[in-house]
């Protein structure tokens, strides 16, 4: 059984996509980040960075005590290795998958996240910041579009790289991107959205959908310092 600490965010969607695609037994433990539940001491024990998602695997392959994991990329890699799914055993394909997984967690996610922040949530619009992150998001879309040329999925076969990237492309309109400018990316995006596991994952998310960034939640979500978790 996988216990998934979750909220309906792009990083949360990554894990429900995997779990649905792999048909693993799991239960969701909601962590309402708008209410500050990510700072609960019990949650911080498994996710010291006070971010969702996190998991507890109550049945690890070594048959010993439960394992907790935080960081969405690490969770995807762990689950892929646990199940033997969505991560090739071929050394070259394995390496390619990790490249694009790390590309997402180190590039696409953070840059699109800053795009969202300065474009949608910042209390004042700073033109330089908005322009900076919209352009960088556009560049990253171009990188992914080029990689997808002639391929159904990012590394050829469906993998955790696709699961990592897709949720960060879903809000492309909020990122001020025209997806039709990227034909290979657009075709992949449509293909991903038609997968049954992806459909189920986003259906699950609907029960947790509510405005995350509100006037009341801004101070919880933004401007955190070390004192927040001490």
Automatic annotation (TrEMBL):
Entry's family note: Belongs to the GST superfamily.
Record keywords, A-Z: Transferase
Keyword set includes Repressor: no
Residue ranges of domain GST N-terminal in the record: 1-87
Pfam family, one: GST_N
SUPFAM superfamilies: GST C-terminal domain-like (SSF47616), Thioredoxin-like (SSF52833)
Molecular function GO labels: transferase activity
Keyword Transferase recorded: yes
Protein known as: Glutathione S-transferase domain protein
Domain GST C-terminal: 90-212
PROSITE patterns: GST_CTER (PS50405), GST_NTER (PS50404)
